Every structure is written in C-alpha cells, then in structure tokens.
Amino acid sequence: METIDTEVATGRASLSRVVMSMVSLALAAVLISFLPHLTGVTWGQLDERLVRVGWGAMAVLTGVWLAGLVAYSNVVSESLPGLSRRRALLVNCVGSGASNVLPFGGAVGVAMTVAMMTRWGFGRRPVAASAVVTGVWNLLSRFLLPAVGLVCLLGAGYMPDRRLAAAAGVGGALLIGVVVAMSAALRREAVADLLGRGLDRLARFLPLRREPCLRDFLLDLRHSTIEITRTRWPRLTLGMAGYMALQCVLFVGCLHVTGAEVAVPEAVAAFAINRVLTTAVITPGGSGISESATALALVGFGVAPGAAAAAVLLFWFFAHLIEIPVGWFAWGIWSLTTRARP
Fold first, then answer.
1. What does the pLDDT look like over 61-89, one tens digit per residue?
2. What are the backbone dihedrals phi and psi of residue 29, each rounded to the nearest 5 degrees, phi first?
3. What span, in angstroms and rounded, lies between the C-alpha atoms of 291 and 289?
4. Would you tell me how many other CB atoms lie within 10 Å of the CB of residue 103?
5. Which of 6, 161, 282, 326 is least surrounded, with the fewest CB atoms within 10 Å of its CB?
6. How confident is the model at residue 8 (pLDDT cuts 50, 70, 90)?
7. Which of 138, 149, 134, 140 has the alpha carbon at shortest distance from 251?
8. What is the 3-state secondary structure of the chain?
9. What's the sign of the alpha-carbon dihedral 179, 183, 186, 188?
C-alpha cells in the first residue's frame, strides 16, 4: 500500500512539473511576442530591421558567441580537475540547453551534467563541488553587474533614478553578503556548521518529505570545494570575467548591426539589466522578462523603439534560443559516444 501511495505521489509531482513547464513556456512565448507592442512598434517593422543584418555580421556575432562558450568552458574545466576542455565544452552546451528550455532549468542542467561527469568516471564528491563552485561564480558575476552598470553610467555623467540606484545597491549588498559568508564558511568549519544549522531550521518550514540535513551536506561540501577555491580562484575568476566580457561584446554588436545608437556606458548598463534578470525562475532563463526590461531600458536611454526591440531579440537569439538545439545536440552526441564505466 505504501508503495502504491509513493507511486501516486510521484506521478502527481511529475504531472505538476509538466504543467508548470508548459505554463512557464507559454508565459515566455507571450512575453516575447508582446515585446514589439511594449516598445510601440510592429513585427513588420522589426522584420525590416532584422533583415538588414547581413550574413557577414551574423558570422561575426556567431564567432563572438562561440568564443563565449569556450571561455565559460574554461570555468567548468577549472572547477573539476582532470576534466578536459573538450568535455567541459560539451557539459557547458548541455547545461545551457536544459536551463533555457525549462523553468528552474538550472537544476535540470546540473543533474544532466552530473550524470555526464559521473559516467566519465569522476567521483560524486568532486562533481558536486564543481557544480557548487560554478554556481557560486555565476551568482557572484550577476550580482556584481548592477554595480558595474551603475559605475559606467556615473562615469558617463548620467544620473540614474532612485530605482536603478536601489537595484544596484541591493545587488552590491547581496554580493558582499555572499562573498563574506562563503569566505567565512571556507576559512572556518564552525561558521559552516552554523550556516548549515540555520539553513536546516529554515528548510523545516518547507513542505519537504524528509528531514533536511543541510548541515552535514554543507560540511562535506566544504571539504570538497575548499581546495578548488583556494588554488584555482584566479583562473575561475578570469574565465568568468572573460565570458561576461564576450557576452557584453555580443550585446553591443547586436545593438550596432540593428542600428541602435547608444553610448557604450548605457549599453553596458542595459546588458547588466539583461543578465541579472536571467536569474528570474518564472520563465526558462528569465526569457521574456529580461528582454522586456532591457528593451525598455534602451528606449529610456534614447534608442529608437524599433532598433531597441530588434537588438534585444537578436541578442536573445544568441544568448538563449540557439543554445537549446545546440545543447540537446551535444546531449545526443554524449549519449551515443559514452559508455558506462564499471
């Protein structure tokens, strides 16, 4: 009887996840389709701008996008000693493909990449440490972006309104808090123990089937990640900085080829808004939400509405849409070529 109840509960959970995924994808599609109306243009006007982007420009943008994939693959390989650059690139593509098609896709992407790494013979503890390290570096880079965007605007003589200043302040405060907590937990086991106990107390308020044991998990993970972060943090940071810089170059390139005239500081600020909002889990990869906010920010900076919407959609194609088929193609290659080790 207990087995039947468990199977029923599992079936209901799977059905609810499917429903959530469909609703999330539908919301993303609605937001993307509503983008021209939000900026006051029509799809016909956007088509005219996008058609002007020649094959040469698309080839250059594709090259920048590929360079960004390689840069982030260096972060993945540095987080797991022994992982080659080629396999790290495969892992990167698969994780991005899953993250961009499902709500809470980051968790699904992590699960798929963990399966890949363990099939290659890596132990579960270093694989888990790799997932945590790359996740932390991703969060730190996105929390830092609002402050970078604000500094660029101030350097250009632009006085941001209170909402933008507040967003940058919140991002900076979160960044400082995360860095302080992570550094303290890595330096002293007592701090990690205290954080784990606090997380366990908070987790008890959630409708979980099992008693949370985040304290033990955090302590075990500390021992796995401490050596990586101590010895490899410069290369991890350099790889992440290179990846973000290439993404910013791609964004500025999309602005240029679609005729969006905006100064570099404003472009960097709009890029920061776009990347921060990709962490919104309401839609896959924040799709639709980040694009709408970015387009409105560009219009606020004086960019023509048609050019702003076209540039944002072109960047969405490279930063989100194209990674879905590439990721699932990479998963197919891995499935066909990998054999389980004893």
1. 999 999 999 999 999 998 888 899 999 99
2. -65, -40
3. 5
4. 23
5. 161
6. very low
7. 149
8. CHHHHHHHHHHHHHHHHHHHHHHHHHHHHHHHHHHHHHHCCCHHHHHHHHHCCCHHHHHHHHHHHHHHHHHHHHHHHHHCCCCCHHHHHHHHHHHHHHHCCCCCHHHHHHHHHHHHHHHCCCCHHHHHHHHHHHHHHHHHHHHHHHHHHHHHHHHCCCCCCHHHHHHHHHHHHHHHHHHHHHHHHHHCHHHHHHHHHHHHHHHCCCCCCCCCCHHHHHHHHHHHHHHHHHHHHHHHHHHHHHHHHHHHHHHHHHHHHCCCCCCHHHHHHHHHHHHHHCCCCCCHHHCCHHHHHHHHHHHHCCCCHHHHHHHHHHHHHHHHHCHHHHHHHHHHHHHHHCCCCC
9. negative
- 112 and 95 Cβ atoms separated by less than 8 Å: yes
The better pLDDT of the pair 342, 145 is held by 145
Cα-Cα-Cα-Cα torsion 53, 265, 160, 311, nearest 10 degrees, comes to 10
Neighbours of 165 (CB within 10 A): 15
Phi/psi for 54 (5° steps) reads -75, 170
pTM: 0.78
What the block records as the tokens of 70 is: 């390689």
User: In terms of Cα–Cα distance, which of 144, 155, 94 is closest to 245?
Assistant: 144
Angle, CA of 50, 242 and 158, to the nearest 5°? 65
Single out the residue of 320, 279, 303, 247 nearest to residue 32, CA to CA.
320
Banded model confidence at residue 278, pLDDT cuts 50, 70, 90: confident
Question: CA–CA separation, 196 vs 201, rounded Å?
Answer: 9
Closest residue by Cα to residue 337 from 76, 97, 329: 329
Task: Kindly state the percentage of the chain with pLDDT values over 70.
Answer: 66
